[in-house]
């Protein structure tokens, strides 16, 4: 297996190179040129393993230039002791045939930990193979959760520096405090005046700017990415869909007719991983793409036209406040039958006009695989309230979008197959909105809200949230979005 660029298939690299580099030089994203097919016997064997074993089993296909020992060490390092549950991705049952895949038991209480606890190991192992002793500089644009998860993963990792950009007013207070208080000697956190798309575009621009690239080289450094444009972020996400399938089989769900997967979606990374799991043999029926009021993907799935020229809304599910879903590019590559010219043309339309329309063939494939819907903040709050009343289960604002959209799917299609809903964050990360959904009581501040939420719902406060109350703020710099280049130089002192 090798990795090719979505915009130019003649660019072929090893897994180590794809991960160390993050993005291809012409701006395309790296994708495997073939996928393994897992058989019934594979799934039986995987079922018998713990999460670490499962991750090893699945990831060795994608890391074929790593030794078995290297894969094992990476996975062990990532998933030993860093999650509050023995299984980093356990399932809770929410009514008949509805499974919630809880992906927030890691150190930052969001699903990004599943990938970002592992990525530093993958990256340092890769860099040893291909980077000739250069220091790796990780640039991250975040809508809130990636930033903290990447900071936790990379803090004090030798030979790395990490710089995180987040939209100053576009993250929850808890997310902001999590990042601003980050410990570690190699971490840098910069707020920017703008939204997530500004941060993401700025980072992408820096990645492909040859002047700054050379400046780094002069200092024996090179960039890489911890965003989901990096293949090393996506591969670990495939694991939890394989693992969830095995767990559903084990608990006796009837999956003979397949099962649906619902994903609260922003940058399209998580749902893309579910698609890859399907491609590898996990019997996924529909991939249900749930959006908040920034419903650019809903419209795309319904019409085949992607158009980011629309109002941007700041919602109570901020990690999905995105109008440019960067991983859709990988999906377009799949849908077009690996047509790099087609992908390059569509991405070109996106950057010059802010929109593109896919061909009828591509649209037909898209429609057969995906179903998309959205919900607004009011519906999100109602879903949290109703789910708590009906099942005593507390959803965060992002997962609530998924549950709401799933209910719409079921009402429209009458499809009652078993379903897996990806739960992407702990409710305590978005405490104000969640508390106001389930109770009239309000605390005096963010952490008082945490205590009140715990008391009224009888749920446990995750320790990373509790510990935050006394954390020291270390980072307060705010940059104009035009000054991200300068910010990078300031942080690296170059
Ligand atoms: C990042 C994030 C999402 C969106 O995931 P994508 O992979 O970007 O689609 C959804 N919910 C939460 C809580 C997140 O942190």
Distance separating the two termini: 38 Å
Label the structural class.
Answer: alpha/beta
Poorly predicted regions are none
Q: What would the principal axes of the Cα set say about the shape?
A: globular
Short note summarizing the structure:
This protein has 494 residues and is of the alpha/beta class.
What can you tell me about this protein's structure?
The protein has a 6-stranded mixed beta sheet, with helices on both faces. The chain is α/β, with parallel strands linked by helices and 494 residues long. The protein contains 22 helices and 16 strands. The protein is 47% helix and 16% strand. β6 (135-141), α7 and β7 (160-167) form a beta-alpha-beta unit. It has a domain at 84-107 and 232-430: Rossmann fold (3-Layer(aba) Sandwich). The chain is globular and about 60 Å long. α1 crosses α6. The protein starts with a strand and ends with a helix.
């Amino acid at each position: 297996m090798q990795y090719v660029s979505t915009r130019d298939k003649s660019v072929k690299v090893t897994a180590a190179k794809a991960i160390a580099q993050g993005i291809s030089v012409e701006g395309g994203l790296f994708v495997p040129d073939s996928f393994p097919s897992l058989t019934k016997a594979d799934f039986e064997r995987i079922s018998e393993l713990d999460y670490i074993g499962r991750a090893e089993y699945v990831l060795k296909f994608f890391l074929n230039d790593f030794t078995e020992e290297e894969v094992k060490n990476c996975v062990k390092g990532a998933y030993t002791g860093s999650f509050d549950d023995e299984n980093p991705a356990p399932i809770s049952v929410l009514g008949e045939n509805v499974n919630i895949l809880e992906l927030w038991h890691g150190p930052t209480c969001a699903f990004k930990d599943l990938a970002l606890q592992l990525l530093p190991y993958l990256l340092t192992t890769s860099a040893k193979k291909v980077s000739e002793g250069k220091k790796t500089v990780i640039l991250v644009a975040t809508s809130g959760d990636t930033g903290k998860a990447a900071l936790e993963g990379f803090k004090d990792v030798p030979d790395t520096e990490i710089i995180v950009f987040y939209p100053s007013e576009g993250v929850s207070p808890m997310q902001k405090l999590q990042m601003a208080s980050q410990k570690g000697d190699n971490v840098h956190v910069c707020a920017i005046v703008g939204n997530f798309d500004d941060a993401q575009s700025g980072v992408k621009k820096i990645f492909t700017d040859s002047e700054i690239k050379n400046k780094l080289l002069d200092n024996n450094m090179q960039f890489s990415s911890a965003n989901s444009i990096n293949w090393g972020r996506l591969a670990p996400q495939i694991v939890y869909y394989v693992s969830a399938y095995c767990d559903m089989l084990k608990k006796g769900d009837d999956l003979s007719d397949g099962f649906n997967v619902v994903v609260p979606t922003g940058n399209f990374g998580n749902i893309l991983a579910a698609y890859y799991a399907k491609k590898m043999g996990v019997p996924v029926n529909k991939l249900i793409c749930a959006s908040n009021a920034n419903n650019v993907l809903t419209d795309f799935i319904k019409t085949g036209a992607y158009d980011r020229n629309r109002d941007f809304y700041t919602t109570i599910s901020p990690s999905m406040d995105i109008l440019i879903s960067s991983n859709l590019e990988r999906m377009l590559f799949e849908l077009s039958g690996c047509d790099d010219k087609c992908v390059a043309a569509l991405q070109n339309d996106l950057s010059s006009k802010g929109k593109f329309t896919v061909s009828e063939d591509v649209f037909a494939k898209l429609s057969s695989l995906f179903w998309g819907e959205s919900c607004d903040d009011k519906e999100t709050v109602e879903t949290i309230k109703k789910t708590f009343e009906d099942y005593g289960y507390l959803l965060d604002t992002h997962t609530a979008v998924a549950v709401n959209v799933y209910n719409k799917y079921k009402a429209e299609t009458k499809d009652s197959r078993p379903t897996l809903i990806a739960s992407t964050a702990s409710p305590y990360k978005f405490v104000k909105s969640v508390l106001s959904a389930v109770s009239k009581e309000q605390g005096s501040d963010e952490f008082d809200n945490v205590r009140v939420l715990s008391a009224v719902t009888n749920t446990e406060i995750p320790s990373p949230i509790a510990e935050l109350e006394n954390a020291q703020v270390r980072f307060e710099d705010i940059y104009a979005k035009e000054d991200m280049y300068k910010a990078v130089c300031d942080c690296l002192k170059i």
